[in-house]
Design a protein that fits this description.
2 domains, six-stranded parallel sheet, binds zinc ion, five-stranded antiparallel sheet, about 400 residues, alpha/beta
Amino acid sequence: MRQIISSFILAGAAVVAMAADNPIGVIGGDPLARLGLRREQLRESSPQPAAVRFVKKTQYLNNAHAVVTHTMDDSAKLVLRAVELMDKYDIKATLFVSTRTGDIAEMWPGLRMAIANGHEIGSHSRTHTCSWPDTAAFCAKTYTDTDSEIIGSRDDILKNTDQPYVWAFCYPCGLCATNQAVHEMLARAGYLVARNYPDEPHDGHVVPNLQTYAKDWYNAAYTQVVQKVGGIAKHGNTDVPTLNAKFDEVYKRGGIYSFMSHSQWLDFGPDQFYQRHMAYIGGRRDVWYVPMGLLYAYKTVVDRTQVRPVEAPAQVARFAVFNDLDPKIYLNSITLQFTAPAKTRVFSSGKPLAERETGLTDRWGDEYFRREGETLYVTVRPNTILEFR
Ligand SMILES: [Zn+2]
């Protein structure tokens, strides 16, 4: 993070690229030493012919084919009603709340329950100040001349919930999403990702059509809105066949379907667009349902984790799974694909991993393994030694 800040001072434009290359929460020291290993104990590859062979890190958790992530903005009590529907269809969301406005005081108990059910609370600032156009002067006055909106809102979430970290931010009214000084402040506050709401005056926010990870994590778009017309927009997006067709398009290519809503611009009921769309996209066995912040955290974990065979006694295969990321921020599991004989048992840091049948993948930190013939999908928290017996 220090590097991000200094490069910002030198050249503002460099920050965007730096954020992805040099993520938040890289820690010093030798990750192998933390596992009690020396570098010379690593093996270049498994001895041949090896009974157990590492194939790859899977693109998504549990080798899912595609991802669904949902975000919902604003501190309105109706958010909690929407969460009940999400839970009915196994959709996981980032709930972006403004921590000093709206119904927030009444919402904390429900938000704490949502966290326990696998949702994430993100920051939507403290006061949700909006004023068009978002001049540099407005962005400075609102977000960088004061710690209150970006850092204070983070601290409010940490104080009112037991969520261990605040990974995601969302720009109120989408304002200042391209402002480099605001990006630098977000990095300083430790946010991994910030969601935009692009060009609401011209309905640019309705279908930004992002179908994978954003290039700039501090100006991250989404696939589409699912909501009625509201705010200063001219259109909503509520036609169920159209909504579902966009999901199908992303699903077919194995992408990330990211949809956002405002609870105050929904209709509730089984025959209404919101519930019908969630019924269509929810409960699929080959989809990973995950909140946005944890999805981006996962990407960093996958990119920075190494898997290397380690010397081991005969009849045992060992692999070091390690990275240089702060485990207090990166709570994610990743999935490693191996080939292994039938009946092989898997241990992580000496403890047996539970075997799971194919089921719903709607969490991001669980540990288990799953068999498909000779293939083992091992889902673990990194910075461990895996052992196959
Ligand atoms: Zn908002």
